[in-house]
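Aim 2 progress update. The chain analyzed this quarter is reproduced below.
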Amino acid sequence: METEFTPLASLGGGLLIGLAAVMLMTTLGRIFGATGILAGFIQPDSSPEFSWRAALLAGMVSGPALYMAITGNWPTIEVPVSTPLLALGGLIVGLGVTYGAGCTSGHGVCGMARLSPRSIVATLTFMAGTAVTVFVIRHVIGG
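Predicted structure tokens:
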């Protein structure tokens, strides 16, 4: 499996995530944890909670349409695994988010920026787990 190196696109995406996190903290005093935002959208505590979560999620999923409007091409998305494996991965991530009390955006972006010891440990755990998984898939299993 070949990995494409995209430093400018990655930098742009990182800047947008950071900007969104800062804006959410500045305007609403909330942490930008994507899975927590999605969970609160599915089971909202109040109407104002639902509104900002819906707006943020709409912005997250509208990126491909904006890309198409600018470039005239639909973005190419390649997922090199089967649908059952994708579903299994989603389940594993969901369990990790639940037991880890947050996701990479909440801990890795916002928590690390606040120098939260819990977030630093969580992010190091995410990254170590990712490195081990990639090594096993690419070099042990041979995927």
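The two ends are 7 Å apart (CA to CA). Residues 7-141 form one domain. These observations will guide the mutagenesis experiments scheduled for the next reporting period.
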